[in-house]
Amino acid sequence: MTGLNSGDNLAPGCPVIRSLKQERAFQGDLIGLSYDALEAGLYVDGLVNDAYLLPYPSQGLEPLKTRLVSVHAASRFDVLIPNLDSELLSFIRLAPLLSERGIRFCLPTEDQLMARAKTALPDLADRCGVRVPKTLPVFDRAAAARGIKGVGYPLVVKGVFCEAYVAYSVDQALGYFDLIAARWGLPVLLQEHVTGTEFDLAAVGDGAGGMVGGVAMLKQSLSEKGKAWSGVTVNDKALFRLADRVLDALPWKGPLEFEALKAKHNDRWYLLEINPRFPAWIYLATAAGQNLPFACFRLALGETVKPMRKYRTGVRFVRYAQDLICDQAEFNSLSSSGSITREVSIERAI
Amino acid sequence: MTDALDLQRLRGLAVSETGVLFDPASGNTFTMNRVATSILHALQRGLAPDRVCDVLKEEYEINPQTLERDMREFLDRLKTLGLT
């Protein structure tokens, strides 16, 4: 399991683990894989048995492959669930080779990963017959200045991986362009700002154009970084029809999250983004009655998973942050040798 | 009294005994007073608005014209909020 960081930018790894542990049929051990020795999930008592540091994706496939082979030799894990956008391409490319060693994944193809990228989303939306806000990728400041006038105000300035800001003037928009370009590179996206209510839908695709399960959520409060800090499960059939249309055109295998908006001015749905992994709020889906991480785990093992159709609406979550006192010896072990090995009694979380 | 109500939509609304209404489609939550809660419960049981008025007249001491006006306003409010 990757994505074990916490705090105000919670990654999905810990909630995915929490979902797996809740399932009585899950009898496995859990291994934490991390890029940083200070990821909180590595130190939560009883969360993971062992933990290993990985090389950053930017170091290339070979170091990652070597490390995973080494970790697998030590811990013999069966399934790897990646939870971070930036690592997915690496795992998709390594999956065939790693599966020969017995490591299984539940992942889309590389083409599918690219097809839902923010720059490609308008084309995908065209194919599916769904709406997206007008979007213009720009590759330099001059193009941004020209593009801003075409998109109109207010507009959203977005990075391809992360961050989005609403701009009300050309100076503001160009300032955000510079910020995002410096942090995340090019292109930067200029997008029409559609006012409305945002909803998220976490789902698992079955790889054949269908949905194994899906749960929708309304965000009720946001962190400073714009992440959902509280929310409630909802069920709008139009949102699910939108997701079904996308999956029909893009037979995705594995977890994904649809970010969509119901526009205020015309009550119509706009697809904003498709995130290619579980969202950080995924435990809410489990609490509402659909354990999507466990479904994904079973799909990775090659099992047939009966589609889940129902879940409880009105289930709420509120996120909180708590200081964790870490074992210095474990931190030292992770920092020096890149691993922690421990005996853990797995208690079932309720 | 009003346009036809979407009974399926109404029945999908979750209403607590204390008058908290949750719309599972939008995630919006509303609070209702006792009379509004009684009206909505009756509508969800399938009673037509005119019949609901008859039932409420027996339950509450209320001027019939006031009741009918309040009923119309409540139904309009449900419609404005997209709840029917």
Order of strands, widest sheet of chain B: 1-2-3
Largest sheet of chain B: 3 strands, antiparallel
Quaternary state reads heterodimer
Q: What distance separates the N and C termini of chain B? A: 15 Å
Q: How are strands sequenced across the largest beta sheet of chain A?
A: 11-10-7-8-9-12
Q: Sum up the overall morphology of chain A in one term.
A: globular
Average of per-residue pLDDT values of chain A: 92
- The succession of helices and strands of chain A, N to C, reads HEEHHHHEHEEHEEEEHEEHHEHE
Query: Level of helix content of chain B?
Result: 40-55%
Give the SSE string of chain B: HEEEHHH
Tally of DSSP helical segments of chain B: 4
Q: Largest sheet of chain A, described in full? A: 6 strands, antiparallel
Helix and strand composition category of chain B: mainly alpha
Please mark out the parts of chain A with pLDDT under 50 across 5 or more consecutive residues, or reply none: 345-350
Strand content of chain A: 15-25%
Count of individual helical segments of chain A: 11
CA-based gyration radius of chain B? 12 Å
- Secondary-structure-based class of chain A equals alpha+beta
Tell me how many strands of chain B there are. Answer: 3
Largest interface: A-B, 14 and 7 residues
Task: Report the C-alpha radius of gyration of chain A, rounded.
Answer: 20 Å
